[in-house]
Design brief:
Elements lengths: L10 H13 L2 H8 L3 H15 L4 E4 L2 E4 L1 H22 L12 E6 L1 H18 L4 E6 L5 H7 L4 E4 L8 E9 L1 E5 L1 H4 L7 H6 L2 E4 L8 H8 L6 E5 L2 H8 L5 E5 H5 L8 E3 L8 E8 L6 H22 L2
Parallel strand pairs: 3-4, 3-5, 8-9
Antiparallel strand pairs: 1-2, 5-12, 6-12, 7-10, 7-11
Helix pairs in contact: 1-2, 1-3, 1-4, 2-3, 5-12
């Protein structure tokens, strides 16, 4: 088998060949490619050496292709068309025809809030797709991109790695949630009542304290945390008919999936708001499928947040 000198293979030579086939003139081909006639002649010389064939023979004012050139012409045209349309200018993503899988990493909070609306939207726009929700948290979200091949991550994480990009979605605040009958509390809850009432704590890491306890200690106060769970659904069920109060994100408190009659009001202590962001791998920023997915997810979450805030 003949050894190919790949260092001598230049895509520009195929462009030169195709242009010569079109114009049958070194001068006109050079003009079309905006290069000098000597450069075009040099390209033809390299093509002849590379393909071991004269390729074009001068007959009067025309360069007449050889039989080998005629055989190569449709092949070169196909190669250049593929490079142009599939490599340099990939097709726009068509969600209606997509049959692959969208994998979205969500924190517990984000999954509870947005999984239904994301499913509905993606099923409507990409009815043949598969959708996979991957549970992530602030400790494993970076590894999820490589190990679980997630397309996007949604949560309160901030970008700390150079390989990731992010987009701000919205800011979340907090409310106190409680059963007024079981606790005897009325809104707004005073600091004294807040401290005296046993607390339920939503704690993703399983800790039975938070920044609130440090803040209270600086004022000489201490609250009693009676129960902690990483699962908001567990805490929400515990609040009904029990002498418990809990600080939760406002949007979680607004969810319509609960039939309870819990009361809510602003907390009597300062609790920092937190931002919800969408993260993705920087190397995939311009991928047509993922550009489309990011836009759809952003719009869907923005609309859902607006709907919940109006409740």
């Amino acid at each position: 088998m003949k050894t190919i000198n790949w260092r001598g293979v230049d895509l520009n030579l195929l462009v030169a060949f195709a242009t010569l086939m079109e114009h049958r003139s070194v001068t006109r081909a050079a003009d079309k490619l905006s290069i000098g006639q000597s450069a075009m002649s040099h390209n033809l010389s390299r093509l002849r050496q590379l393909l071991d064939d004269p390729l074009f023979e001068r007959q009067g004012h025309l360069m007449v292709p050889t039989e080998r050139a005629l055989e190569l012409a449709p092949i070169v045209e196909t190669i250049l068309s593929m490079i142009t349309n599939e490599v340099l200018k990939p097709d726009r993503f068509d969600p209606s025809a997509y049959q692959g899988t969208f994998t979205i990493g969500l924190t517990d909070y984000a999954e509870l809030l947005f999984a239904p609306s994301l499913f509905d939207t993606l099923q409507q726009l990409a009815p043949q797709c598969h959708l996979s929700f991957c549970n992530i948290d602030r400790h494993n979200y970076q590894a999820a991109f490589d190990e679980r091949h997630v397309d996007l991550v949604i949560g309160s994480m901030a970008v700390t790695a150079k390989k990731l990009e992010s987009q701000y979605l919205y800011t979340e605040d907090h409310v106190c949630l409680f059963d007024a009958s079981a606790t005897g509390l009325t809104a707004p809850v005073s600091l004294g009542d807040y401290i005296r009432t046993p607390h339920a704590l939503v704690s993703p890491e399983g800790h039975l304290s938070s920044g609130v306890d440090k803040q209270l200690a600086e004022q000489g106060f201490q609250r009693h945390i009676a129960i902690g769970s990483r699962n908001f659904l567990t805490i929400r069920r515990l609040l009904t008919d029990r002498n418990l109060i809990c600080v939760v994100s406002r949007l979680m408190a607004q969810l319509a999936i609960f039939n309870d009659q819990l009361s809510q009001c602003p907390p009597p202590v300062t609790i920092p708001d937190f931002d919800i962001n969408m993260l993705w791998q920087r190397r995939n920023t311009t991928h047509p499928k993922l550009c489309w997915l990011r836009e759809v997810v952003k719009d869907t979450i923005t609309q859902e947040v607006s709907r919940l805030r109006q409740r």
